[in-house]
Amino acid sequence: MATVDITAETFEETIEKNEIVIVDFWAEWCGPCKSFAPIYEEVSKEYDDVVFGKIDTEAQQELASHFQIRSIPTLMIFREQVVLYSEAGMLNNTQLKEVISKVQELDMATVHAEIAKQQAAEE
Q: pTM here?
């Protein structure tokens, strides 16, 4: 699957309607972002069941602010609407595939149970 542009208007629907969504926060002026873009695009073609989104931090400042993006590129991975990975900096092809594999292998029932336990402890 090729990458898709995500905006404030499409963000929620994209996260809710897809099991795994990887988001690349980037900007046109960012050198490392430009270096990472072809890697991200290439890897995206190998995963039909994963949405590879791109959020332009200049055009989508509201989203960048919401997720407290302080440096770019920042990669964020959602699975079942839960942020499982958030890291600034570039990954190479192999590293990106490793992170995706780990996210795919996670037992989400355990993750959701842990979140529920943490929320209950905060109340």
A: 0.92
